[in-house]
Amino acid sequence: MVRIVIAIVLLMCSQLLAWGGKEHVQLTRIAAQGLMDDPATPEDMKAWLRQIIPEQRDLAGERDFLLNASVATDLNRSGGGVLYWVMVPDDLAQNAPRDSKVEPFGMHERLMHFIELELFVAGNKQRKFAANLSAKPLLEDIRRDWRDERYIQAGYLPFAVETSYQRLVLAIRENRLEPADGVGGRDDDSAMRWAGYLAHYLQDNTQPHHSTVDFKSRSYFNDRRDAPDIHKELEWRMVDDERESFPELRSAYWDVLASALREFEDPISQTDPWLASVEVSFISYDCLPLIGEAAVAAATRNPDRTWHFDTARFFHHTGEVGGVKMSVLQMKARQQAWAVKRTQAMWLAAWREGR
Ligand SMILES: [Zn+2]
Question: Residue 285 belongs to what domain range?
Fold first, then answer.
């Protein structure tokens, strides 16, 4: 009973959703297009990708989408096919009944999108974020056992990556490439569906806030409850807020994203999906001080004590990540280019394993 109450309380105050719907759709479509354009991709895989991406876009089309499209949380604006399924995990996280469970974990979908690393630190250190990164655990502190009760609070992201990868491999092996009722099919167990789920969790993995208990960077505002929501600032607000369209910032972002897509190389050589996911969280964690410092630089108090947040100033703030100087805009581009490359690498691995 106590455990159930704790789980409910944690659900109410736990993590947000990660990269917005528009971002998941775009990162997934770019990943698929990159694989289709690559001579090294198996021909039968390319044919499958063409089936599950109803609308293809070149880079000019992607730029236009980033600057002008709005998706928000509306599944009807996903574009359909695998782009529908890449949005579903967030839809379920928000809208699935409280008592609905993801098996085998027996936990709500909302807990599948993150892993709060500080909760695994050994010894009697405080399980709180520290700006000098001293509260980061060691890789070997993360136990590969989803029954470990710390996951009820910390979140199951590496396990969600692993199970959706396994389901994708199985669907490919059993030749369930598309839904039995067509690409518009909804309730199915096809490779199209699991490719969408897998892409979603792989992409959430590179959002640095999804690796920490401090998922809104509130520690940089002395943990005040009224602090600005840095989580949404880092992800969807700049690219998909109906009240403010940030045309200059979006245009600048496209340029750095396009160059990160060309230049950034995935540092993960680990082929095990669970271990790779934990490694991505560990590396992404090191972006948190830059995000927090930029947030403080961009936030000022209005005379009525509410916050004014200067989003452009936030993204142009420059600091260091792992000894490398970069702006928040460049850091976000790197993390999103990485999300594209993780999606490509794991889809390709699943295809090879399933065939
Ligand atoms: Zn998510």
Answer: 2-354
Question: From ligand 1's centre to the CA of 207, what distance in Å?
Answer: 10
Query: Residue-wise over 244-266: b if at least 16 C-beta within 10 A, else e?
Result: eebeebbebbbebbbebbeebee
Q: What is the DSSP string of 124-152?
A: T---S--TTSTT---GGGS-S-TTSTHHH
Q: Would you mind telling me the total number of residues written for the chain in this entry?
A: 355
Answer whether residue 7 shows pLDDT above 60. no
Mean pLDDT of 167-189: 86
C-alpha 199 chain-centroid distance = 9
How many domains is the chain built from?
1
| pLDDT surpasses 70 at 14 | no
Beta bridge partners of 102: 107
The residue with tokens 């709060």 is 116
Q: pTM for the whole thing?
A: 0.94
CA of 17 to the centre of ligand 1 (A): 4
* Cα-to-centroid distance, 265 and ligand 1 (Å): 23
Strands 307-309 and 299-301: antiparallel
CATH number for the domain harbouring residue 201: 1.10.575.10
Does pLDDT of 11 surpass 80? Answer: no
Q: Evaluate if residue 10 carries a pLDDT over 50.
A: no
3-state secondary structure (DSSP) of residue 270: coil
286 is written with which tokens?
A: 């090191």
